[in-house]
Each structure stands twice: as structure tokens, then as C-alpha cells.
Structure prediction request, 206 residues.
Amino acid sequence: MKAKLFGTVIELSYPLTAAITAVIILDGSSSVFICLLSALMHELGHIMMLRHFGAMPERIKLSLFDAAIIDRKKALRKNNQELFVILAGIAVNYISAAIGMGIYHFVKQDWMMTFVTAHLTLGIFNSLPVDSLDGGQAILIILTSRFSQERAETILVIISIIVIVPIACGGFLLLFYTRYNFTLLLAAMYLTALLFLKNKKRLLRK
Prediction:
């Protein structure tokens, strides 16, 4: 599935498209739609900041476990500009959550609280200092200003592992005590998969 936005080709992989379609069909509530909308707003935050700097990428490929951005102009942007681009998605989530909370104070609609929760969850999750997430990429930029690219990437992997291990342990404990809640464990598995896939690409480059 392909679409074009501000001259950038946005491509969704077939597994991701199928997964989104299946979830929307099977879930009769508006919760899934709101979560997808929140994720879309997050990505639009990155895109709008890129547009602000006049550096729209050529192509964005979204898959189940990765978001690949073909951006040949990245090397031309300054570190502070790149930080703004990376953190724009998180900023959209937190701002949207704050606005949604203000609206919920007046309308008291359940769907608005779902909107707030979705944005807060995305914002907090992407703020984690883990490789491939926005928080990790922001830390990588800061590290590369002080260390070589290779050393900065190694430090980020160590930081990522330090963050993922407690989340995984907490996930196991949560599943053990509740017997059904595996969301935290699933998040740890997802982060581990991201870390593995990202560093697999780096190893192949070597």
C-alpha cells in the first residue's frame, strides 16, 4: 500500500496492512481506530518538522517491526535540527494528551480518555532510551557529538539492554501475578526485536 504526502512516498508493508485491517474488523469499538490515529499523528509530527526544515525524505517504509526512512538529506541537517525532528513525534503525543485531558474535563466522554491514554502511552514508550525508538535516537545524536559513531552506537546498545531487562522482569512478574496481563512482557519482546534487527543491519554493514 502506497501513498504520497508532501512529495514523500509512504509505503505500508503487506503484513502491516493486513494486521491493521484485521484488528479494525475484529474490534467493534473505536479504541483501535483512536490508537491508530494517535500513531499517525506521532509520525506526522516527524514529517511536519522535516517539512519545516525543507528536508522531506524520499520514502518512508512502515512494517510490523520497523520504520525505514530513506532520507538522503539527513547528513546535511545540523544535530539540533535532527533532535527537533526526532522529538517532534513525542511532542505531538504529549501535547495531544494535554489537550485531550482538558477537553475530557468538560465533555467526560470515554473515547476522549482513550485518546489521552493512547497518546500518553505512545509518548512515554517512544521516550525510552532504547535503540530504534525516538528516545534512543536522540541519545545517539548527543553521544555522537562526543564519541565516534561506532562507540556511540555501542553505548546506546548497552543503555538499551539496561532499560529492557527491568521491563522484561516486570513483565514476567505482572504475568505471574495476574495470570493474563502480558502487555509489559510483550513490550519488552518488541523492544528486544527492534534492538536485534537494528544491530543485525549494523553487523551486515561491517
Remarks:
- The longest strand covers residues 8-12.
- The chain has a mean pLDDT of 83.
- Strands lie at 2-5, 8-12, 59-62, 67-70.
